[in-house]
């Protein structure tokens, strides 16, 4: 039985747990999120594997690319991903991958792209279940009114990530509500 190799990684915005399985990144998530246990259980159950602290080439690649992202040097990630979730969750996460750096989308837009405008709550739930944060950019999803809504790393971190990617956009968004 293969194990999921994990390692914690301190970023300028908080601590992330990285995980690799069969030479793919299956985890890049905020250590102190509310759904930590549920996310970890889902990944371990579906992969029929347990977490084991260690090192892997994929984790090193993720650390390098995340460091480049936080310094402003990387806009696109090039890491093999293993999305562990239902077919619907994976459909939503694949849509998230299409939201370009510096851009945002709304839950309503995502529900339309998944083929059912009325699936708004299911889309929001799938977005919240994303275990590969930043790389699968769930932080780029905002409310239809421009509000930040929730984020696993906290809305303060979400704001900082959006400012990192596009300072003018976030500034413009918040001036509408001041």
What would a concise description of this structure say?
With 178 residues, the protein is an alpha/beta fold. It has helices at residues 36-47, 57-70, 87-96, 107-113, 120-128, 155-165, 167-175; strands at 4-11, 14-21, 24-30, 51-53, 105-106, 141-142.
What average pLDDT do the residues reach? 91
How would you describe the oligomerization state of the chains in this entry? single chain
Strand content: 15-25%
Q: What's the CATH superfamily of the largest domain, by name?
A: Winged helix-like DNA-binding domain superfamily/Winged helix DNA-binding domain
Top-tier CATH class of the largest domain? Mainly Alpha
Radius of gyration, whole Å? 16 Å
Total helical elements: 7
Regions with little confidence, pLDDT below 50 for 5+ residues = 174-178
Q: CATH topology of the largest domain, anyone? A: Arc Repressor Mutant, subunit A
Please describe what this structure looks like.
There is one protein chain. The chain has seven helices and six strands; from the N terminus they run βββαβααβααβαα. The protein has 178 residues and is α/β, with parallel strands linked by helices. The chain has two domains: 4-70; 87-175, Winged helix-like DNA-binding domain superfamily/Winged helix DNA-binding domain (Arc Repressor Mutant, subunit A). The strands form two sheets. It has a four-stranded mixed beta sheet. Strand 1 and strand 2 (14-21) form a beta hairpin. The termini are far apart. Mean pLDDT is 91; it is low at 174-178.
């Amino acid at each position: 039985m293969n194990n999921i190799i994990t390692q914690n990684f301190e970023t300028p915005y908080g601590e992330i747990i990285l995980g690799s399985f069969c030479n793919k990144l299956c985890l890049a998530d905020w250590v102190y999120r509310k759904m930590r246990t549920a996310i970890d259980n889902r990944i371990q159950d579906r992969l029929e594997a347990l977490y084991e602290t260690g090192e892997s080439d994929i984790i090193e690649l993720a650390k390098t690319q995340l460091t480049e992202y936080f310094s402003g040097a990387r806009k696109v990630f090039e890491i093999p991903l293993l999305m562990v979730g239902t077919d619907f969750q994976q459909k939503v996460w694949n849509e998230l991958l299409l939201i370009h750096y510096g851009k945002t989308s709304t839950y309503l837009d995502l529900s339309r792209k998944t083929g059912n405008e009325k699936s708004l709550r299911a889309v929001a739930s799938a977005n919240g279940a994303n275990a590969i944060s930043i790389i699968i950019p769930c932080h780029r999803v905002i409310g239809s009114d421009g509000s930040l809504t929730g984020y696993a790393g906290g809305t303060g971190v979400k704001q900082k990530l959006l400012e990192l990617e596009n300072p003018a956009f976030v500034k413009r968004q918040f001036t509408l509500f001041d």
